[in-house]
């Protein structure tokens, strides 16, 4: 994918904000708990390797990713010794690679382990495969669900030297909402499944950002922190943050073209928007191929703190906005972030189009260059 470095549309990522957020979250966690930085999905759109470097500087205990290639990206970028967990399912044919790279992997069935044993003979190191048993306590996504299967899984691991059962974990479906009932129920199921094991693994973990922010009494050896580390509220606006976090990402562009319209002249595909007499229209070099989704047309963008409405449909590479007055070409436009005290956060954007902040952040495409600053060094 081409990165558009010859146009002014950029995602600025403040690595200092990420470090401060990690310190802030850590200061509210019990001291013996591990903090794992979740950098899947290219670090929620912020750039996995740069975020991981910042997170390491802030003293995290390891990293979590979703797919094996994301783990290899970190290993190849110099994170050679760090704890690294692939939380999603992996292909059993790759087990020798996983063991050799000392990567911990989520496993969800004994059948997978059975298939892994002969393939592990092909590994080049003596590393056992580091396994985190995924248990499904109500998310309904991956994981073993019964005590007897947990026991059988544990006993299978104990019988094979090439397997090391390092952890057991689960994921909550409603931790970002007010519904305590489902969270409690999942917690009870998790405790039972863990109690059914003969030997408690080194890492028993259940917390994501929401569990860590709002439910610190739930016992976990590690917190897998994603969205909060980037400075965002996992619930968008449902629950208030218990302490402040600093949003790390600003999506900016510049006015590329300005014109004054006559009444009734139309804007963009479908000629659906008709300008009023004298309306100032600016063209911005950003569109849905950059992740500025077509249905975001109801969300104003910020020009010197002024909320400027989008006019007409958003095109693949450009969109048009209405200005309160003539602004020069090159004037900065904040699509996502803060400008003169006004905020266009991912949660505001998400609300405008019926999604969640996570999707907005991950949706900023690779065409948009990520530029790194560190506000703690300024
Ligand atoms: C298993 C698991 N743990 C932790 C996380 C991190 O979640 P959050 O970004 O809400 O902290 C995720 C993300 O979806 C996940 O799938």
TrEMBL record:
The keyword Isomerase applies. One of its GO terms (cellular component) is cytosol. The keyword Isomerase applies. It holds the Pfam family Ala_racemase_N. It comes from the Bacteria. One of its GO terms (biological process) is peptidoglycan biosynthetic process. Pathway: Amino-acid biosynthesis; D-alanine biosynthesis; D-alanine from L-alanine: step 1/1. One of its GO terms (molecular function) is pyridoxal phosphate binding. The modification N6-(pyridoxal phosphate)lysine is found at residue 40. Substrate binds at residues 141, 316. Keywords: Isomerase, Pyridoxal phosphate. This is Alanine racemase. It comes from Jeotgalibaca dankookensis.
């Amino acid at each position: 994918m081409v990165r558009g470095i010859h146009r002014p549309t950029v995602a600025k990522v403040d690595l200092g904000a990420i470090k401060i957020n990690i310190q802030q979250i850590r200061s509210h966690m019990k001291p013996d708990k591990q903090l794992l930085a979740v950098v899947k999905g290219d670090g929620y759109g912020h750039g996995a390797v740069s975020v991981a470097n910042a997170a390491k500087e802030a003293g995290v205990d390891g990293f979590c990713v979703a797919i094996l290639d994301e783990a290899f990206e970190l290993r190849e970028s110099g994170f050679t010794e760090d704890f690294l967990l692939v939380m999603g399912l992996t292909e059993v044919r790759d087990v020798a690679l996983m063991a050799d790279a000392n990567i911990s992997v989520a496993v969800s069935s004994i059948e997978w382990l059975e298939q892994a044993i002969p393939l592990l003979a092909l590994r080049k190191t003596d590393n056992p495969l580091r396994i985190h048993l995924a248990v499904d306590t109500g998310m309904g996504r991956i994981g073993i669900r019964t005590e007897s299967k947990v026991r059988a899984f544990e006993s299978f691991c104990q019988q094979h030297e090439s397997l090391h059962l390092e952890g057991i974990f689960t994921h909550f479906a409603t931790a970002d909402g007010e519904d305590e009932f489902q969270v409690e129920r999942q917690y009870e199921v998790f405790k039972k499944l863990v109690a059914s094991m003969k030997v408690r693994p080194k890492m028993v973990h259940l917390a994501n950002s929401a569990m860590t922010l709002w439910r610190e009494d739930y016992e976990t050896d590690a917190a897998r922190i994603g969205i909060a580390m980037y400075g965002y509220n996992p619930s968008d606006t449902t629950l208030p943050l218990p302490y402040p976090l600093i949003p790390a990402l600003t999506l900016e562009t510049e006015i590329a073209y300005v014109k004054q319209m006559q009444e009734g002249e139309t804007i963009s595909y479908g000629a659906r928007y008709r300008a009023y007499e004298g309306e100032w229209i600016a063209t911005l070099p950003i569109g849905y191929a950059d992740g500025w989704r077509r249905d975001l047309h109801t969300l104003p963008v910020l020009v010197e703190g002024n909320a400027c409405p989008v006019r007409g449909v958003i095109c693949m590479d450009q969109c048009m906005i209405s200005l309160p007055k003539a602004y020069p070409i090159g004037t900065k436009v904040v699509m996502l972030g803060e400008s003169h005290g006004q905020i266009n956060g991912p949660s505001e954007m998400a609300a405008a189009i019926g999604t969640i902040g996570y999707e907005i952040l991950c949706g900023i495409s690779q065409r948009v260059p990520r530029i790194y600053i560190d506000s703690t060094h300024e």
